[in-house]
Amino acid sequence: MKTEASAPAAETAATSQGSALAAARAGRRLEPRSMVRPAVIAALLACVLLFVPSIFSLYYVDAWTQVAIYSIVTLGLGLLVGRVGMVSLGQGAVLAMGAWVSARLLFATGLPFPLVLLAGGLITMVLGTLVGLPALRMSGLYLALITLMLAGAITVVLQNINFPNGGHGFTGYNASTVHIPPIRRPAIAASDPAFFRYSVVVAILMFLLVLVHLRGRPGRAWAAIRQSEAASLAGGINTTLFKLWAFALASFITGIAGGLVAGSFRYLNSLTFSTADSITLLAVVLMGGAYSMTGAIVAAFLLKFLQALLNDWGVSPDWLTILFGIGVLQVLTTAPRGIVEQMPKDLARLGRLIRGLLGRPTTTRESAE
Amino acid sequence: MISVSDLTVRFGGVTPLDRMTVNFERGTCGLIGPNGAGKTTFFNVLSGFVRPVEGTVHAFDEDLLKMTHYRRARWGVRRTFQTEQAIEELSVYDNVAMIHEHSKMTGGSRREDVLGAIEFVKLDIDPYAKVGSLGAAQRRLVEVARAVVGKPRLVLLDEPAAGLPDEETALLGDVIRAIPEHMGALVILVDHDMSLVSHCCEVTAVLDFGKLLASGPTEEVLRDERVIRAYLGTEEIAA
Ligand SMILES: Nc1ncnc2c1ncn2[C@@H]1O[C@H](COP(=O)(O)OP(=O)(O)O)[C@@H](O)[C@H]1O
Ligand SMILES: [Mg+2]
């Protein structure tokens, strides 16, 4: 694709002297095409919000809730891995911290749910950025390993200081196993379908937050850092600041997702989170496509919906682990940009194949690859 | 005006810069020398990637070596790399705007400055096209636009014409020549294409094994016996 596009571009530059730049100067930015995509996405989301709770059984509504929540987590991890090039295996632990902090706040205070989410997000942002500190000194495999070890440590700590389960106060732990009050949900989202809608709306807000970052100064700086640290420094980018910024943003939204996890599970205990989750998270993010926001949704679908489906069919969840293993291998060897970018190519190839079989002339067989 | 004195860099047993002493006064100055002479290392010292063991660099009366690397760009040091480094994922506009937004040395509004820089390098393409979709020559021009946007003080060009065909090199030469007057910066041009160097630079310095071999008006330097011998030692001088 790349080599193909360059030749015509050079020709246009030579023939249409002064036109492209002049047009840009005149302020031609809002092409009609650029408005189609947001409109389609908005329509799709409206359909999801309206119809998913009425089409699916409660069991699957809950699965979709998890997809919405985890799409925030995979979005954050995709930001780190795909946009900035920092492989973190600690995001599962960051999610656990978010859930833990929010659950504590929900039991200990009477704060409204959105405020708890926000506070949980901010506290997790600080803690998660600490997990990201090694990224300033190392990269690649070493960063992955050290974040994995930090994740393990955090999981152990959380296990030992107990998840809050309705005892009094901020540190309250109720040793009784009988009378455990559930984690509070927002009044407008007490039922499962309502909590689904609530989660989707929060997820949309988080996607918009990340989009604003990607379109702006941090997004440009991240793209530069990912391609070349030297060129970024030579361009005046404070790479330390922007790497930490990426970890802060990813941790903030993951913390918010943690709050939603707390609200959705109602009874949270440390067994809900394990260190292995962090690895699975990275696997689905790579499979879905770390370079795009749609990839985050695909990743969350792979992680949570397939799980619910297999559960429903009575298939052992171990198959999922095997599937993810094969999936990551396949992605890394043949489709480094993930399912989101590979699917259209594969479909196009399939289309050509079918057309070929039907005997129609295929003109662009060569040029498409 | 930048003055370099006794600049020495060591990597283990290698001494790529060996008490280099030279002044670059104004305009576009050439810096030539055989492969491995230390030209890129000199640029790396100026941009802060390599710390010299000895020597000073004063740029417009400021001690350049005291500044943190990313602050040097804000102060006005810009460069291109021997292997072109425009950011593929971003559009041409964003590539240039990115430098502008991290620089204190700006002229007018961002949009005006950025489109002005793209126009200055005679890059007539859609500014919102992704750099990843451009050809080699155009990417080089994007990199030059990044180096001149706003009000840079010192522009370092490391073999900008490497791998370009002759016509493209000639166009690039016209752009480079115009930088000092239009952008008000001092330019140091490293290249192996001697016709490009003669076309752009009134004065040229020659490095060999990390030492300054000669410097002065480009014509004279290129005729200098020692310079010719240094080049013949490694490769034929490209004229
Ligand atoms: N990071 C480094 N570590 C060790 N040696 C280096 C390093 N960078 C450059 N050198 C050596 O320094 C010398 C000068 O290299 P360089 O400045 O790239 O030359 P030029 O750009 O003039 O071709 C070469 O011998 C090169 O091998
Ligand atoms: Mg070099």
Could you give a quick summary of the protein structure above?
With 369 residues, chain A is an all-alpha fold.
Q: What do you see in this structure?
A:
- The complex is a heterodimer of chains A (369) and B (239).
- Chain A is mainly α.
- Chain A has a single domain (56-174, 182-337), classed as Orthogonal Bundle (ABC transporter involved in vitamin B12 uptake, BtuC), CATH 1.10.3470.
- Chain A has 15 helices and no strands.
- The longest helix of chain A has 27 residues, at 58-84.
- In chain A, 41% of the residues are buried.
- By secondary structure, chain B is of the alpha/beta class.
- Chain B has a domain at 2-85 and 152-231: Rossmann fold (3-Layer(aba) Sandwich).
- In chain B, the strands form two sheets. Chain B has a six-stranded mixed beta sheet, with helices on both faces. Chain B has a four-stranded antiparallel beta sheet with strand order 2-1-4-5, with helices on one face.
- In chain B, helix 3 runs parallel beside helix 5 (136-148), helix 4 crosses helix 5 and helix 5 (136-148) runs parallel beside helix 6 (166-183).
- Chain B is globular.
- Chain B starts with a strand and ends in a 5-residue tail after the last helix.
- The mean pLDDT of chain B is 86.
- Chain A binds chain B through residues 2, 5-7, 9-10, 12-13, 16-21, 23-25, 29, 217, 220-221, 223-224, 226-228, 230-239, and chain B through 47-49, 69-74, 77-79, 81, 85, 87-90, 93-94, 97-99, 101-103, 115, 118-119, 123-129, 132-138, 146.
- The structure holds adenosine-5'-diphosphate and magnesium ion.
- Residues 11, 14, 16, 33, 35-41 of chain B line the site of adenosine-5'-diphosphate (ADP).
